[in-house]
Design a protein that fits this description.
By secondary structure, the chain is of the alpha/beta class. The protein has nine helices and 19 strands. α1 crosses α8 and α5 crosses α6. It is globular. Bound molecules: flavin-adenine dinucleotide.
Length: 374
């Protein structure tokens, strides 16, 4: 029997779960969420010591939803009893929300191929056979798609996204490449464990006169931790270090080369805090997007592919001009936009999404919240 539905969401991270919650406001919609592993998988893969940099606080009843919530009424702060959640705590929060709303998540189902159909819609090939859908929401994130080759010799290094925890890094000294959130997080966690760290960075992302957008400058949470790490005297920060190569040395260890001719030797493999592949998981269906010269994905105002109608992008890769939606509190603003666009084209009642406060949908003034005992 041909398996057919209105919409398929690929990925059950905060983007996929959040878009599904927008769909829950569209009576009669038929959809499924396909997830290659389990709900919140990327967060379960974070290093054990990593914490959310955006704080969680239960401000929902006063109309300001918890910064990290994917639904207007839920609060990760209340769910986990924490202000800076671990990856596991947040994954469990997402799972709780998915179960509470009985979201149609199919776990362990990796989408291997997407073929647009001439008459409209898509055929998805997955481990569980072929599926047909009219609309497709691609919400596969970035974390599971690290940039493992930012320069020659990067294969000798250890990428942040490959680290289950820092306690296994038992040598006295390490070199970290990259001065934004993941590089700083690696450095401060190693310093906490008593190691010495050399941090190689092109520039300071914590300049008080730097950009105000938290997508471009280090979060206050990381700044505080960085200053404490500097105070230990065990963190050496090298600026202007544009790393172009890492090579192994005959005598053992590694040599790290910068563009200006400087180099540093280390007995341990350098740690990469150099980010993720341009477009992250959207690279899996690269030919279905239009890519800008900077390697970004061009989208319509409704977050739809400019080359394949019916295909939407949700998550941190979404950009509109100088607006970077890389945090949950940013990209959740787009869930309702996608829901509304698809709901209207399916001829469904979209009132619940339209009457909401902002694009995210109605929130605030709730007597109670999901995930709390009140
Ligand atoms: C160290 C670190 C700290 C961060 N801290 C914060 C923070 O404090 N606040 C904040 O807002 N953001 C933070 N972020 C960013 C945030 O984690 C991401 O923006 C968020 O995870 C993106 O959500 P997503 O749903 O798009 O992707 P993901 O959470 O990665 O979910 C994508 C899902 O898609 C699945 N998938 C991928 N490919 C397929 C396929 N082919 N078929 C089926 N399923 C597939 C994956 O298994 C995964 O579950 C941080 C990121 C990192 C790395």
């Amino acid at each position: 029997m041909r398996k057919e539905t209105d919409v398929i969401i690929v990925g059950a991270g905060p983007a996929g779960i959040g878009v599904a919650l927008a769909f829950e406001k569209l009576p009669g919609i038929k959809y499924a969420i396909l997830e290659s592993h389990q709900v919140g998988e990327s967060f379960r893969r974070w290093p054990a010591q990593t914490r959310f940099i955006t704080p969680s606080f239960h401000s929902n009843p006063f109309g300001l939803a918890d910064l990290n919530a994917v639904s207007e009424f839920s609060s990760p702060a209340i769910f986990a009893g924490a202000e800076h959640l671990s990856g596991e705590q947040y994954a469990n929060y997402l799972l709780f929300i998915a179960r509470q709303h009985a979201l149609p998540v199919v776990s362990g189902c990796r989408v291997q191929q997407v073929t647009p159909v001439k008459e409209g819609g898509f055929v998805l090939t997955s481990e569980q056979g072929e599926l047909h859908t009219r609309f497709l929401v691609w919400a596969t994130g970035e974390y599971q798609f690290p940039e493992l080759a930012p320069f020659p010799g990067a294969q000798w290094c250890c990428h942040y996204a490959q680290v289950p925890g820092w306690q296994r890094f038992e040598a006295p000294d390490y070199t970290v490449i990259g001065g934004y959130e993941s590089g700083i997080d690696a450095a401060v966690n190693l310093i906490k464990l008593g190691r010495r760290v050399r941090l190689l960075t092109r520039k300071s992302t914590w300049d008080p006169l730097g950009p105000y957008d938290p997508s471009l400058s280090l979060s206050p949470y990381s700044r505080e931790r960085l200053y404490a790490a500097v105070d230990t005297g065990r963190l050496d920060i090298v600026f202007g270090a544009d790393i172009v190569q890492v090579e192994t040395r005959r005598a053992g260890g590694y040599r790290i080369h910068a563009a200006d001719g400087r180099y540093w030797d280390d007995a341990q493999a350098p740690i990469l805090g150099t980010g993720f592949r341009k477009g992250g998981g959207a690279q899996q269906i690269a030919e279905l997007w239009q890519w800008t010269a900077e390697g970004r994905i061009a989208l319509t105002d409704n977050d739809e592919s400019t080359v394949v109608p019916g295909l939407f992008l949700a998550g941190p890769q979404v950009r509109h001009h100088d607006r970077i939606y890389c945090f949950i509190y940013k990209f959740r603003q787009r869930f309702g936009v996608i829901g509304l666009s698809i709901g209207q084209r399916l001829g469904l009642d979209t009132e619940a999404l339209e009457s909401g406060s902002g694009a995210w949908g109605p929130f605030g003034n709730s007597d109670c919240c999901e995930g709390c005992q009140c």
